[in-house]
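Need residues for this backbone.
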C-alpha cells in the first residue's frame, strides 16, 4: 500500500495517473443512497424460506451461511442474478424453482414498505436528504461537477426505482451523463456495458474514467479497463454482518483507493484533480 492521504481515512493502495479524469461513474445504493440500507434483512430470509421449502436436511444456520455467501458475492450486479442463483440452489436440492423473475418480484414486494417509509420521512421533512445519503456525498459530486467532469449513475436496482430515488434525494441533475439501472431484458444491461459505452462514445483511455462504488462488481469492471477505482467500504446496517469484510473485497477487486465514505471529499478531490 502506498499510504494514506494526510490527515484522512483515504487509503492509497496504488499510485494512479492523476489529473486525467473527465468522466466519473458512481454506483448508487450503499455508495450514495441509504434509502435501501438493510435490504439484506429482506433478501436473506426470503431465500432461506425458499430453500427450507425444498425439504433438505439442512439447518437454518447452514442455509443462511450459504445464502449470505452468494448474495454478498453478487452484490453490485442486477438483482436478477441473485435470484438466478437462488433458483440454481433450489434445483441443487431437488426442488422445482420458480422463474427467477418471480423471486425478484416477491423480494421487491417485501422490500418496498421499507423504501416507502424512508421516502415518506424525507418528503415530510422528518429527515433531511443528507440523512439518507452517505456522508460527504453531495460535496463530492458537486466538487466533481465543478471540475468539469461528466457524471454517470449505474445501479443493479431496477432503473425505475433508481430514477425515483435519485429524484427524491435531489441528485438527478448532477448526473449529466445519464442514470442507468436494471432492465427487464437483463442481459442488455450491466455496469461493464455502461463503462464500455462511455469508453467507446468518448474515445477514452483508462485514467480518464473514475469508477466509485461499494461493490466488488463495479470496482472489478473499472479495473478491467484501466480506470481509476475508488472503493467505498460504507457501513451497512443488517443483521448478518454482511459488510464486515467489505474493505477486503474491494481491495481484492482492485480498488486503487479506499475510503469509508466521502467525509474527506476535499482531500479526495484535490488528490484526484490536482
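Answer:
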Amino acid at each position: 500500500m502506498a499510504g494514506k492521504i494526510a490527515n484522512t481515512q483515504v487509503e492509497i493502495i496504488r499510485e494512479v495517473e492523476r489529473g486525467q479524469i473527465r468522466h466519473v461513474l458512481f454506483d448508487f445504493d450503499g455508495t450514495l443512497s441509504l434509502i435501501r440500507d438493510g435490504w439484506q434483512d429482506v433478501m436473506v430470509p426470503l431465500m432461506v424460506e425458499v430453500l427450507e421449502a425444498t425439504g433438505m436436511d439442512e439447518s437454518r444456520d447452514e442455509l443462511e451461511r450459504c445464502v449470505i455467501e452468494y448474495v454478498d458475492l453478487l452484490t453490485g450486479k442486477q438483482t436478477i442474478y441473485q435470484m438466478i442463483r437462488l433458483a440454481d440452489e433450489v434445483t441443487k436440492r431437488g426442488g422445482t424453482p420458480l422463474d427467477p423473475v418471480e423471486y425478484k418480484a416477491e423480494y421487491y414486494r417485501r422490500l418496498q414498505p421499507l423504501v416507502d417509509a424512508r421516502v415518506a420521512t424525507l418528503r415530510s421533512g422528518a429527515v433531511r436528504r443528507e440523512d439518507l445519503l452517505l456522508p460527504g456525498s453531495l460535496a463530492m459530486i458537486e466538487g466533481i461537477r465543478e471540475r468539469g467532469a461528466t457524471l454517470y449513475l449505474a445501479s443493479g436496482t431496477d432503473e425505475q426505482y433508481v430514477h425515483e430515488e435519485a429524484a427524491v434525494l435531489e441528485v438527478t441533475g448532477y448526473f449529466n451523463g445519464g442514470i442507468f439501472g436494471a432492465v427487464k431484458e437483463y442481459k442488455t444491461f450491466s455496469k461493464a456495458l455502461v463503462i464500455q459505452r462511455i469508453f467507446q462514445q468518448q474515445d477514452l483511455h483508462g485514467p480518464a474514467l473514475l469508477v466509485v462504488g461499494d461493490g466488488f462488481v463495479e470496482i472489478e469492471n473499472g479495473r478491467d479497463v484501466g480506470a481509476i477505482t475508488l472503493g467505498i467500504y460504507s457501513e451497512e446496517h443488517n443483521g448478518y454482518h454482511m459488510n464486515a469484510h467489505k474493505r477486503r473485497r474491494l481491495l481484492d477487486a482492485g480498488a486503487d483507493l479506499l475510503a469509508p465514505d466521502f467525509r474527506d471529499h476535499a482531500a479526495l478531490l484535490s488528490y484526484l484533480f490536482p
